[in-house]
C-alpha cells in the first residue's frame, strides 16, 4: 500500500510540474490552470515549495532560450556605462525599461498578495478572468506593430509593467497580459515576445530568492524531495518546448487560437464548476 501511495505521489507531482511548465509560457494562465486542476481532480499539494520550484524551472528554460539576448544586453549595458558607445545605447535603455516595468508587479504583489490569494484565487473568479484573457488576446490578434527594441519609451515600459501586475490575479495570463500591452503600444510581435519573457526573469528570480527561507523551512521538503525533483524536471522540459512552440505561433500571428481556448474554458468553468 505504501508503494502505491509513493507511486501516486510521484505521478501527481510529475503531472502538476508538466502542467505548470507547459502553461507558463503560453497565454492561458498557468496559475489559473493549477487552481482548476486541483479543484477538478481534488488534488492537494503537500508542502509550501512546489510552485516556487516549478516557477524556477520555467525561469531556467527562459534563460536558456534567451541566453544570447541576455549576454548581448549585459555586454552593451556595461559598454555604454563605461564608454558611452552610441551603438550600445539602445540595449542600455532596454535594460532600464525592464527594471522600470518590474516595479508595478513587485509593489502590488507585496501590498495585495494576501487579498489576491484569499479573494481572487477562487474557481468562480478564474472563469471570468480567463474570459478577460481571451478577450484581450482577441483584440490584438491582427495587430502588427512597428516598434523595435530601440524604439521603446518609458511610457511603454510602465504600461507593460502594470499589465504584468494585473496578471498576479489567477486566470489573467502573465505572458498574455504583457504581450497584449506591448502590442497595444505598438511593439512588433518579436519585440513584444522578447520584452515579455525578459521581464519574467527579474520577477521570477526575485520571488525565488525571497522564498529560499520558505523552501528551507518547509517541513515536507525531505519527504517530498524526489517528487519535487520530478516536478522540477517536468516543468523545465515542458517550459522549454512550450516556449519554443509559442515563439513559432507568435511569428505566424495565430494568437486567436489561444483566445478561443480561454473563451471555451472560461465559459465551461462559469457554467459547470
UniProtKB/TrEMBL annotation:
* EC top class, as a word: hydrolase
Entry membrane topology: Multi-pass membrane protein
Q: What is its EC number?
A: 3.6.1.27
Q: Which InterPro entries match?
A: UppP
Its subcellular locations are: Cell membrane
Ranges that cross the membrane:
13-36, 48-66, 94-112, 124-141, 161-185, 197-217, 223-243, 255-272
State if Signal is listed as a keyword.
no
Q: Which Pfam families match?
A: BacA
Superkingdom of the organism of origin: Bacteria
For this UniProt record, the keywords arranged alphabetically read as follows: Antibiotic resistance, Cell membrane, Cell shape, Cell wall biogenesis/degradation, Hydrolase, Membrane, Peptidoglycan synthesis, Transmembrane, Transmembrane helix
Give the principal location in a single coarse category.
Answer: membrane
Reaction(s) this enzyme catalyzes, per UniProt: di-trans,octa-cis-undecaprenyl diphosphate + H2O = di-trans,octa-cis-undecaprenyl phosphate + phosphate + H(+)
Which protein family is named in the record?
Belongs to the UppP family.
Q: What is noted besides the main data?
A: Bacitracin is thought to be involved in the inhibition of peptidoglycan synthesis by sequestering undecaprenyl diphosphate, thereby reducing the pool of lipid carrier available.
* Known role: Catalyzes the dephosphorylation of undecaprenyl diphosphate (UPP). Confers resistance to bacitracin.
Record-linked PANTHER family: UNDECAPRENYL-DIPHOSPHATASE
Can you say what this protein is called? Undecaprenyl-diphosphatase
Gene that encodes the chain: uppP
